[in-house]
Amino acid sequence: MTGKNSWPFKIYIMLIFAFLYLPVVVLVLFSFNESPIIGVWSGFSLRWYESLIGNRAVVSAAKNSLIVSLSATTAATFIGTTTALLMERKGGFRGKKTMDPMLYMPLMVPEVVFAISLLTVFTLVGIRLSFLTLILGHVAFITAFVIVTIRVRLAGTDRSLEEAAMDLGANEWKTFWHITFPILLPGIIGGALLGFAISLEDFVITFFTAGPGSSTLPLWIWGTLRRGISPDINALSTIMVLVSVSVVIIAQLINRKKL
Asked: Which of 63-91 are b and which e, b meaning 16 or more Cβ less than 10 Å from the residue's Cβ?
């Protein structure tokens, strides 16, 4: 028996999923472990989640992460939306063929190289690392993801709706707000949520662009890991995984929404 319904095919798919997600399942499971010793199960407990609530360093890092992610997502969504519209609706301008692949540079360049380049630019310009450089770094990194999401949505829209509105007397501004924007809104929201999830869990860009007092959750986890693995990290990592997965799923559902 061959094909995608055969047992070898099913077993192969199950092994792939186990390889990809079993470490995450183990992390989530041991975040509820009563024992402070990693790898030794002694019973179900919420003690590590309770300890996170009383940890001022974690609360401060969580606030920083939310501020950075929300600020970067807002800026990246505005830049990504306007850029996607210009590239798709004003596609005949000079230099488009050169600019098109450059928009996706952050997706192709290794993240550590992109982070080092940001640090180099900030140093040459004379900008001290701070909350501002951290937010700018995240904006530069996640904007490409937002553009890709919005352009996919925009490329699949029916131009005849916009043309019909303009034939009926609507100008470009009214056509955009009453026709284009409602069609594009699921893509904008989806791109924003995807950018937020990437920004929230990013470590490399954050590590190279964060200044004093701008520690985020990934940086706190890294600093704690240098002293050894603790159950607190499992609990915090579980929360971050759940938030990121939920945001990405919502983004995909919204982006697939049809008129």
From this structure: ebbeebbebbbebbbebbbebbbebbeee
Tell me the per-residue pLDDT of 120-171, one tens digit each, with 9 for 90 and over. Answer: 999 999 889 988 999 999 999 999 999 888 888 777 676 666 667 666 666 6
DSSP 13-34: HHHHHHHHHHHHHHHHHHTTBS
Q: Which residues have C-beta within 8 Å of that of residue 55, sequence separation ≥ 6?
A: 232
Q: What angle do CA 16, 152, 65 make, to 5 degrees?
A: 70
Distance CA 215, CA 228 (A): 19
Q: Which region, left, alpha or beta, applies to residue 126 given φ > 0 means left and ψ of -120 to 50 means alpha?
A: left
Residue ranges of the domains in the chain?
55-255
Contacts made by residues 13-17, CB under 8 angstroms, sequence distance 24+ = none
Please tell me the pTM assigned to this model.
Answer: 0.80
The answer to whether residue 51 scores a pLDDT higher than 90 is: no
Q: Does domain 55-255 have CATH number 1.10.3720.10?
A: yes
Contact 196, 68 (CB under 8 A): no
| Ordered DSSP codes for 146-206 | HHHHHHHHHHTS-HHHHHHHHHTT--HHHHIIIIIHHHHHHHHHHHHHHHHHHHHH--HHH
Cα separation of 248 and 58, whole Å?
23
Phi and psi at 130, nearest 5°, equal -160, -170
Mean pLDDT of the 166-184 span? 73
Per the CB < 8 A criterion, the answer to whether 195 and 257 are in contact is no
